[in-house]
Amino acid sequence: MIQRDATRVYPKSCGRLGRSMKRRDFLKTGGAAGLGLAAWGLFSKDIAAAPAADAVKLARRISGRVLLPGDDAYEQRRRVATAWADRRPALIVQCVSARDVQHSIAFARERGLAVAVRCGGHSIPGHGTCDGGLVGDLSTLKGADVDPSRKIVRVAGGSLAGEIDRATASFGLATVMGECPTVGVSGFVLGGGEGHLMSKFGVGSDNIAAVEMVLADGRLVKARASENSDLYWAARGGGGNFGVVTAIECALHEVGNVVAGNIAFEATDVAAFLRFARDYGAAAPDELTMIPRIVPGPGGKKIVAVRATYCGDPASAEAVFKPLRQFAKPLKDSIKLRPYLAFQSEGPAEATPVFDHIRSGFLPQMSDAVIAIVARHIERAPESFTLSLPHLHGAVSRIAPDATAYPLRTPGFDCWIEAEWETPAARERAVTWVDAFWAEIAPHTKLAYVNGLSEEGNARVRSAYGANYDRLARIKRQFDPDNIFRFNQNILPA
Questions:
Q1: Pairing state of beta strands 208-214 and 244-251?
Q2: Which residues does 96 contact at the CB level (< 8 Å), separation at least 6?
Q3: How crowded is the C-beta side of 243, counted as CA atoms within 13 Å?
Q4: Does residue 174 contact residue 255 with C-beta atoms inside 8 Å?
Q5: Are the C-beta atoms of residues 49 and 30 closer than 8 Å to each other?
Q6: Which of the residues 4, 39, 165, 435 has an alpha carbon 20 to 30 A from that of 361?
Q7: Which residues, 6+ apart, have CB-to-CB distance to 61 below 8 Å?
Q8: Rounded to whole angstroms, how far apart are CA atoms 221 and 214?
């Protein structure tokens, strides 16, 4: 490490609304003097050509730290939640200010290095790290400045969702975050941001009032409705394609107690459960956000479940949840009145790296044909799997599809198909199952939530954004014509 001076169903990760904890548990660095030429032999051939003194100079320019191969902190910060993304960047720069980000981007551009940006490290394809390039680690760029009178929170670019939930809850306020406390706020909201409050307040990106970001040319700019409006439009769903976000201003809402929790049933009839979820969702009020799931249960059985949040008058909650509780005799029912912060804090305290394979897309209709496909593949599911079906409706679907870059503006269900493995032998079965499932259900999907995509290529990114892609590509050309920021669900410059 070079320093400037010598001086139970919760997701494991970020935007991964559908990921859960272990499925079987469902119910129950050296100093600058040590930087010799030998150390640079660990780097890619691009960075190896750079003088060793350059990294020292970078460390002296910034307030954060520069981590190099061989540092203990380097090993920790190069790893992400996707275990198979086992990559080795040439250097990791832990930024504590926008100025640090500017110096890091300039350093990378001068040397032709790839740039990856990470915070929580929850990207499904492992985009928070790279081989042989520079990782801008924003995990040390934290903070939340709450303005209760304006109902705005200014969030530092490296903050985690749980940190923001805690900061805003003390004022009886909240913005739309995901299920997992350790997801990075920037990656979550820039990709759209589907979370527990979305049916009432829109997705996370709908609540962005302004963003501050460092562009590929090193400029620090602000984007909002009245300033850099194209960039503001693109930032609300376009991911990290346009710059490194150093701060976000998000709208806050009065949220105190919610009626929320999980209810689970034995999956004696998967098709019946999905038909119920379809009809229950169609009648749901804006105050109710739900995520139906199917997961493994004990003894090789399957479990169907709903994670639900009712952000409305608690006196009305009993009637809202009555049909759900009457679907079948619950194996588990934790839905109750509780502080929103307590509910949000139930997720895992850290993201454990996992080997998994995910495919996802948006289902505008839970048709009988879709239900038949799902029921058939659930019967063949591997030992460790999850099918998550976040329900989109209410405030999310009352915004025009082209009002922001996030395109999922009709009622429906996201469909996340995931399988995990711990051994090479289990990998083949897991991947084969996910791909076969996806091949059948994909023709019934339209668009996609980009935070749920794997590494699937530009054609898939185009189809995810639909009619919004061409405008995004033009804005990409304006702000990042050389595609410096390409470790993401990449939008190619037009």
A1: antiparallel
A2: 62, 63, 64, 140, 141
A3: 29
A4: yes
A5: no
A6: 165
A7: 4, 103
A8: 6
pLDDT at position 7 is 25
**Predicted local confidence at residue 165, as pLDDT:** 97
What distances in angstroms separate CA 476 from CA 250, 472, 484, 493, one per listed residue? Answer: 23, 6, 10, 5
Q: Which of 244, 240, 190, 238 is nearest to 217 (CA)?
A: 244
End-to-end CA distance of the chain: 39
Which of 34, 130, 114 is CA-nearest to residue 78? 130
- Which residues, other chains included, contact 421 with Cβ-Cβ below 8 Å and sequence gap of 6+? 355, 356, 382, 384, 427, 429, 430
- Predicted confidence at residue 52, as pLDDT, reads 55
Q: What is the CA radius of gyration of the chain?
A: 22
Nearest to 297 by CA among 422, 386, 372: 386
CB within 8 Å of 480: residues ≥ 6 apart: 215, 216, 241, 242, 243, 493
Neighbours of 476 (CB within 10 A): 23
3-state secondary structure of 393: coil
Pairwise CA distance, residues 312 & 359, whole Å: 33
The three-class DSSP label of residue 7 is: coil
364, 367, 370, 372: CA torsion to nearest 10: 170
Question: DSSP E strands: which ranges in 336-471?
Answer: 336-339, 355-363, 385-388, 391-392, 412-421
DSSP letter at 443 equals: G
Q: What SS3 class is residue 285?
A: coil
Q: Please list, in sequence order, all residues whose beta carbon lies within 8 angstroms of the beta carbon of residue 149, skipping any fewer than 6 positions away.
A: none
Place of tokens 């394609």: 241
Which residues neighbour 402 within 8 Å (Cβ) at sequence distance 6 or greater? 467, 468, 471
Contact 277, 177 (CB under 8 A): no
Cα gap 327→329, rounded to integer Å: 7
Concatenate the DSSP letters of all residues of 198-228 into one string: HHHH--GGGGEEEEEEE-TTS-EEEEBTTBS
- The whole-angstrom separation of Cα 121 and Cα 137 is 9
Bridge partners, residue 81, by sequence = none
pLDDT of 5 reads 33
244-251/332-333 β-pairing = unpaired
Retrieve residue 361's tokens.
Answer: 């897309």
CA atoms lying within 13 Å on the CB side of residue 145:
6
* Phi and psi, residue 85, nearest 5°: -85, 65
**Distance from C-alpha of 193 to C-alpha of 206, rounded to nearest angstrom:** 9
Count CA atoms within 13 Å of residue 313 on its CB side.
3
Which residues, given as ranges, of the chain have pLDDT below 50?
2-51
